[in-house]
Amino acid sequence: MPSYALIVEPDPGQAQLYRHIATAEGFEARVARDGEQAAAIVRAQGAPALTVLELSLARVDGFQVIAGIRKLAAADTAPVVVVSAFRDLREVAAQYAEEMGISALLPRSASPDTVRRTVKKVLAASAAPHSPAPPISAPPPAATVLEIDEERAEEVRLHRLDQMQLLDQTQDEELRRIAEEVAKRFGAPSAMISLVLEDKQWAKAHHGLTGRMLEQRGSPREESFCTHVVQGRQPLVVADAAAHPAFAENPLVKEGLVRGYAGVPLEIPTGDVLGALCIFDSKPITTTVEDLDQLGVLARGVAGQLELRSSARRQERERARLEPGLHKQLESPKGLFDALSYLSAVLDDTDDGVILLDGGRKVVFANQAAADLFALASDSLIGRDRDEVVREAAQLSSDPDDFVRRMRVAPEGPFALRAEFEMDRPRRRFVRWAAKPVQLVEGIGHVIVLSDITAAMDLAREREQLARTDPVTGLMNRRGGEKVLEREGSRAQRFGSRVSVALVDLDHFKQLNERHGHRAGDEVLRAVGLAIANAMRGIDVTVRWGGDELLAILPATGLEGARSFAERVRAQVETLDPALLHGVTLSVGVAELQPGEDWADAVRRADVKLYEAKDAGRNRVA
């Protein structure tokens, strides 16, 4: 049976990224959206040669999936890469990494390049069998999520909660009915619309709360499952918290108040996650990915309800500040007409696309920027149903099915959502789609704002690249190199694999700069960097370590292999144009990481060897 890669990820868009990466490594990929599907694949096909998975999974959690794989194969032949949105779950996984054979841990916000490099390193350190990568592999789809500064985002989120003034002494009856309907729909005894505050989770509305959770109308933040949903910004499902390594010691679990839990983010159009819509039970629960999708649809409706309540309070405050004469002026037909004329002029002149829906979710206004996203005239959008517009937009995206899934809302009532998509047509760009409800005379309408965030995405990627790139040579800089060394050193110590370093110094480089200028020195540095890169395998890394020092990091390579590599590079540089080199040669010191040794110790030993090479006459390997 051919080796395969197992991708276990509830989000189809994210799973597609991992699938591309696995395919590029020569694997046939199998994709599962929940833990039970993953376990069934392993039972039918045996241990995968590579697994990439999220830890929060429906029916069977990620830790159990890994344990099932480990019953069939060890980490050296079946490596596991965990990519999880939830920081606390990653921290628990790190504690059990050696015991469970987890090869690497990454946050969900990791860039595609980071995930790709990590998979390559893990495979290089393992004995997992896989076919050669295809000669031309399609690149993975670009990530559509910008990096988030969690600390700053939390400050903004708490400020937004304070602005929205959503805390009430008594339950909101309409939201309480929604919580009751949610519990009934999923057969759970308890449901809650939870707002996560600085020190606690607050049940904005609830059904079936018992014990101190009812008395406190929530729980301390450190005990709250919903806090993890806010931090991870993704659905969290815990089938049996009493058997889960991250939650078994939670006081709510030990007191018998919560054992099974499923919650989805309450995200508003600003991108802030206020809390969670969740169901829970004092017994284990069975929640499918389809249940989570449906819970997500309901959460968009709840977010819309919260937006309406906040907007009504804000309007009351604004009206209170207006002079009585302005109230009458705006209420007159001419005043209303003038206000609408100004609004239309402003919206037509903005770069963001704006679409207004009436109470029946029909388009009553679309500015030209919105029409341009669909390559249509603005008038042609008027009168269309919201779902029709979504289906048409989906056909312009890079993944129509995922687009429709993420835009799904309940057929009636308010909704709020925010999502980013890659659009392929009429030209490639990244678009943020945000929608929020507005109270109209005839019912609840909605405002949709479409923002082109391509420039922001490109800038984020450029910054990421610049942060780890030396501007002169284009090689990885020391900061990036130290991260690679730390990762490779940790892997070598964990798996007993070999890794070596070769520290390269340019002989007579100072004299070159003094006689011919720094421009000539930069040209030589680039030429030597290219010579090293040409001698490398795909898993090796070259780093601009210092002024005239370059460092080659060589995973899965012993000392003799490193010497052979260094000699090839030294000899190759000797063949370069003498007019370019101006007498520059290479001295190289090599060292292999020893058991129990830190990577810095190996680099220091390579530095000692480098000076032995120089003392012996330069232009040699030691």
> Going across the major beta sheet, what is the strand order?
8-7-6-11-10-9
Profile the largest sheet.
6 strands, antiparallel
Q: Indicate the low-confidence ranges by residue numbers.
A: 131-147
Helix-and-strand structural type:
alpha+beta
Q: What is the alpha-carbon Rg in Å?
A: 29 Å
| Quaternary structure classification | single chain
The average pLDDT value, as a whole number, equals: 87
Tell the overall outline. Answer: globular
CATH superfamily of the largest domain: GAF domain
Question: How many domain units?
Answer: 4
Measured by DSSP, the beta-strand proportion falls in 15-25%
The CATH architecture assignment of the largest domain turns out to be 2-Layer Sandwich
CATH class of the largest domain: Alpha Beta
Distance between the termini: 46 Å
Q: Helix count? A: 24
**CATH-defined topology of the largest domain:** Beta-Lactamase
According to DSSP, the number of beta strands is: 20
